[in-house]
Specification:
By secondary structure, this protein is an alpha+beta fold. The chain is built from four helices and 14 strands. Strand 9 and strand 10 form a beta hairpin.
């Protein structure tokens, strides 16, 4: 925009300001008052037509859907899925536009035995994490996967390689090169 354009815009603004004495609004209506005292009103229809009742009708009621029947918007109306998918512990996802249940449940719960030698077991799969500072597990595994040793003992002292090297794992415990030093471990498996 050249200098002439700026001058023209300024002239337009000055003309509008000289001809108007006021501008006000109330809800969806804007009122323009001219210098001669006459007024013009403008109503913004999409605001005026958006009533509480219309909005509530489009969104539906709280009885749409259920714990196993997902809801979706169909032309602005909440609609329940025709199929029952998932349950209280099995999540769902969209697969190519179809609501599909996951293969595994979540949130089915963990059982935990706290303490310096304890365990946590996921109830639906049996996956178990155990910890302690002795070479005997506080809970018997049906399948033991792995033992991870900490390089410091339960007194904070640095341990030697043979004191943290696991030489055998069983469902009841494990052996290390030099036991009896208060070694800390975490073990993983199924119980």
């Amino acid at each position: 925009m050249g200098l002439e354009g700026i001058v023209t815009v300024e002239k337009i603004r000055a003309a509008i300001n000289a001809s108007l004495s006021g501008l006000s609004n109330s809800n969806a209506t804007i009122t323009i008052t001219k210098n001669d005292g006459t007024t013009s009103t403008i109503t913004i229809n999409n605001v005026a037509n958006a009533t509480t009742a219309t909005t509530a009708t489009k969104l539906g009621s709280s009885t749409v859907g259920s714990g196993v029947r997902a809801i979706y918007l169909n032309a602005g109306t909440a609609t329940a899925s025709n199929s029952t998918v998932g349950d209280s512990t099995t999540p769902v996802y969209l697969k190519a536009g179809t609501i599909t249940a996951c293969n595994a449940s979540i949130g089915s719960g963990w059982t935990v035995s706290e303490g310096s030698a304890g365990w946590a077991r996921e109830n639906s799969t049996g996956f178990t994490i155990q910890w302690g500072d002795q070479t005997t597990f506080p809970r018997t595994f049906t399948t033991a996967f792995q033992v991870v040793m900490q390089t410091n003992n339960n007194k904070g002292e640095q341990l030697y390689k043979n004191q943290v090297t696991v030489t055998a794992i069983s469902n009841n415990g494990f052996t290390i090169g030099s036991p009896g030093q208060g070694q800390r471990y975490v073990a993983f498996g199924i119980s």
